[in-house]
Design goal:
Helix 3 links the parallel strand 10 and strand 11. By secondary structure, this protein is an alpha+beta fold. Strands 1, 2, 3, 4, 10 and 11 form a 6-stranded mixed beta sheet that branches. It has a 4-stranded mixed beta sheet with strand order 14-13-12-17. It has a 3-stranded antiparallel beta sheet with strand order 6-5-7. The protein is globular and about 65 Å long.
């Protein structure tokens, strides 16, 4: 069977290989993660993944992103004349992920284990299971993401310890404190923010670039923020610059709006200053999670912190 991380902004598929190690399976484009985006080009052509994300930015009315935030609700939406629920939309992503994994491995597996956030309740978990069933998958298990993260580091072979999972994804943030011992997991604290994630860092970068461009070019750039094509290009560049600044001290890019052009440089220090308030929110939530866990067990102390989620690479 496959393990599927059905994420808010990106999803991934993994399996246990012959060496009994977790192995990420690349998608059709050869990438380890797939944007959780759906683009309804027509009633007969539905696209999932990177191309869908580009379509979503250019044509938001026929696109779906961040559907995970609606799981377990009565949310309904229509695309190309057809009605969709969060479960049926998530099913499109799940089916595409499993089909890509099967093509990559030359297999025909339909059994899956799907991960969900720790804060998901019964309704959200059942909605996730239904999404798998709509995708014609055999959902053999639903595992919380922090427990999956703990299992991935081989806790079965380690002694008793207390672990905090700091999970900063593209659209959500949550922290979980758990006690683990010989493969047994006891969750003792959960907290988070369903609307805080890497997308907020992207928006901060967009604003940085926009302010810098308008400052460089002057009053002639007034109104560029209302040009959809310009802003689409800006958002795509903002995400790439954000990722690059996890390794580099500064990045430069060229922006243009009509005949107006400017070479923009953003440093890691500037980006960190612009997003410090977001980091502070995650730290406050993490501290609150530990404090709540200590109310149950005053002797509790965290032995290990796991940074999970693509956006945690900025920390």
């Amino acid at each position: 069977s496959y393990g599927v991380d059905l994420g808010t902004t990106y999803s991934a598929v993994a399996r246990i290989n012959e060496q009994q190690m977790a192995e990420i399976i690349n998608n059709f484009e050869g990438d380890p993660t797939t944007p959780s985006a759906i683009f309804f080009e027509s009633a007969d052509n539905v696209i999932v993944g990177a191309e869908a994300k580009r379509g979503a930015l250019a044509d938001p009315d026929n696109s779906c992103m961040l559907i995970k935030r609606e799981m377990g609700t009565d949310y309904k939406v229509e695309y190309q004349g057809a009605a969709y629920s969060p479960e049926s939309l998530s099913a499109l992503i799940l089916r595409a992920m499993v089909d890509a994994a099967n093509d990559e491995k030359g297999q025909g597996i339909d059994q899956v284990v799907i991960t969900v956030p720790a804060y998901f309740g019964t309704q959200e978990r059942e909605a996730t299971r239904q999404a798998g069933q709509i995708a014609k998958l055999d959902v053999v298990g639903i595992v919380t993401e922090p427990v999956a993260a703990a299992l991935s580091i081989g806790i079965r072979n380690e002694g008793a310890q207390t672990i905090m999972v700091y999970d900063l994804g593209g659209g959500t943030f949550d922290t979980t404190v758990m006690k683990v011992d010989s493969g047994k997991v006891e969750v003792v604290g959960i907290d988070g923010n369903r609307t805080l994630g890497g997308a907020d860092w992207d928006e901060a970068m967009v604003q940085l670039l926009l302010d810098r461009f308008q400052s460089e070019v002057g009053a002639e750039a007034d109104g560029c923020e209302f040009d959809e094509e310009f802003m689409l290009d800006l958002r795509l560049k903002a995400e790439d610059l954000k990722k690059s600044l996890t390794r580099r001290e500064s990045m430069q890019d060229r922006l243009s709006w009509g005949a107006l052009k400017a070479s923009i440089t953003v440093t890691r220090e500037e980006f960190e200053a612009a997003t410090a308030h977001l980091v502070d929110q995650t730290v406050e939530i993490a501290e609150r999670t530990v404090s709540d866990a200590q109310k149950k067990d005053p002797e509790l102390s965290v032995d290990r912190v796991l940074l999970v989620g693509g956006s945690s690479r900025m920390m």
